[in-house]
Specification:
The protein has about 500 residues and is an alpha/beta fold. It folds into two domains: about 1-270, Rossmann fold (3-Layer(aba) Sandwich); about 295-485, 3-Layer(aba) Sandwich (Aminopeptidase). It is built from 15 helices and 16 strands. It has a seven-stranded mixed β-sheet, sandwiched between helices. It has a seven-stranded mixed β-sheet with strand order 10-11-12-13-14-16-15, sandwiched between helices. The protein has a two-stranded antiparallel ribbon with strand order 3-6. The radius of gyration is 28 Å and the shape is globular.
Length: about 500
């Protein structure tokens, strides 16, 4: 890594400490800068990492103190001639437990590994021996991150700290409950609550700490100048999902990076995104809807749409939408949407093609708990259809647009917020872990909806919504979740 290389090349560090060692990849940059494996202290307490650590540091695997629970694994383990083979057997079975046999694609991998087990084990052993040539000689121990941070290293020690970004991160990499029992148990590190406090403690130490940090939105309270000094931030990686999801590094002694040539990129890269975001006045929270309220549509760029979506519906990922737009009320920004036009790219004579709504979000307005229904009503009316056909879909070709379809995940069989607007045409039960990555749904349903465009214009849509009282009516079962899960959709 560039930061580690710079620190080791330009300062008199003679020891590198790496808690939360993971796959040990952080050490390669240090080795390139002249650090020897004998100068590295690594630690972790996940079973996978500890097997590698013991192997690289020349400690017998039996000293890990694990008990094998699976008789098949135990038999193969006991037949091995050395620790390289034992480690390969354990790694293979850990990998097999990662796969879900109920999923066709993953089942193919399981079958391949089982049918070619001897060959796979030989390849793992070869890989372990090659890595031993790189990492062999490091000093590894099973230790809690908090224990490492409490130690009193000297000024010539650089500590690289890459903690799990979520609770459970230590053990989630590989499930071992039915395979191995470990004697060493440590409470999981809670990144959200423990990072700021531990960071400030490390700033008081003689040693230099280099931390990884994860920011999901620009105003994250963990990463403001009131929490972490701005000069402590070092750019690491900006995720490509345009959701202001940025990984930083923070250094406890920023004066050591005064000559680091890439530090100016920390804010510059973020600004490149923000420069493309056009600022709009958001509809006031006390805005009152009237029959005279003017509804209009603006075609906006991707960055602006995702910025306002993040502002109103936090922690969503990227979107593969073809077109982004904004619904305005009296020229105030009221909602943003994204459509996919996959059906429009195929000419099918006599078939009505649908616009695929990927997302549609709006901010809250006092007194209108079911406001998202107005957003959906607007995007399924005749006037909206005409605007789309004369805008993004204006092209020299034949097509016949029928309606709008969308997909959402919900804990319930039906999202009642959609009642009367969309009709369910498909419903699929989702199991644990199968829901879309941008939802917090663990189990429930993937629901596909569709509707034809109606014949109303914007004025008629608004008048009907106000007259019916549907925007201010009492919430119904499942509606809270429906608003949050409003079309976290897969592509068409």
């Amino acid at each position: 890594m560039l930061v580690i290389r710079h620190l080791l090349d330009n300062h008199n560090f003679n020891r590198l400490v790496v808690p939360c060692a993971g796959l040990f990849s952080q050490m390669k940059g240090a080795f390139q800068a002249g650090i020897k494996p004998e100068q590295v202290e690594a630690s972790d307490f996940s079973f996978f990492t500890s097997m590698l650590g013991f192997l690289y540091s020349g400690k017998p695997l039996e000293k890990l103190g694990y008990e094998i629970l699976d008789p098949v694994v135990e038999r193969e383990h006991d037949q091995c001639e050395d620790d390289f083979e034992r480690c390969a057997v354990m790694m293979l079975h850990l990998k097999l437990r990662q796969f879900k046999a109920t999923q066709f694609h993953q089942r193919r991998f399981i079958n391949y590994y089982l049918e070619n087990k001897e060959m796979v084990l030989r390849e793992i052993v070869t890989s372990l021996k090659n890595n031993h040539l790189i990492y062999g000689g490091i000093d590894y121990e099973m230790a809690d991150l908090r224990e490492i941070l409490s130690r009193e290293y000297d000024e010539q020690t650089l500590v690289f700290i890459n903690p799990p970004s979520y609770s459970g991160g230590y053990t989630v990499m590989f499930p071992i409950e039915d395979m191995v029992r470990l004697e060493y148990l440590v409470e999981e590190f809670d990144y959200d609550s423990e990072f700021p406090e531990e960071y400030w403690k490390s700033k008081e130490k003689k040693w230099t700490g280099l931390w990884t940090a994860f920011g999901y939105k620009a105003d994250d309270s963990r990463y403001t100048t009131d929490t972490i000094p701005a000069e402590d931030f070092v750019f690491a990686e900006e995720r490509p999902n345009l959701h202001l999801h940025t990984e930083y590094m923070t250094i406890t002694k920023p004066e050591l990076l005064k000559t680091f040539p890439h530090k100016s990129m920390v804010w510059a890269r973020q600004d490149q995104f923000m420069e493309k975001v056009k600022q709009y006045k958001t509809v006031p929270i006390d805005f009152v809807l009237k029959e005279t309220t003017k509804i209009s549509i603006k075609f906006i760029n991707r960055e602006s749409a995702l910025y306002y979506r993040s502002l109103w519906a936090h922690k969503l990922g990227n979107s593969n939408a073809d077109d982004f737009g904004m619904i305005c009320l009296d020229n105030y920004a009221f909602a943003v949407y994204g459509f996919n036009y996959a059906d429009m790219r195929r000419f099918r004579l006599g078939v009505k093609d649908d616009l695929h709504l990927l997302f549609g979000f709006n901010p809250k307005i006092n007194g209108y708990p079911r406001l998202n229904r107005l957003v959906m009503r607007i995007m399924t009316c005749r006037e909206f259809k005409n605007i789309i056909l004369n805008g993004p879909l204006r092209t020299n070709r034949l097509f016949n647009v029928g309606g709008v379809k969308t997909t959402c995940y919900s804990k319930y069989r039906k999202v009642k917020l959609n009642s009367g607007i969309f009709k369910v045409y498909a419903r699929e039960k989702v199991k644990e872990g199968q829901a879309h990555q941008n939802t917090n749904i663990r189990t429930g349903y993937k629901i596909s909806y569709r509707t034809d465009f109606n014949k109303l214009d914007f004025k008629e849509v608004l008048k009907n919504a106000l007259d019916s009282g549907e925007l201010v009516g009492p919430k119904v079962h499942g509606e809270n979740d429906g608003e949050k899960e409003r079309v976290i959709s897969q592509s068409a």
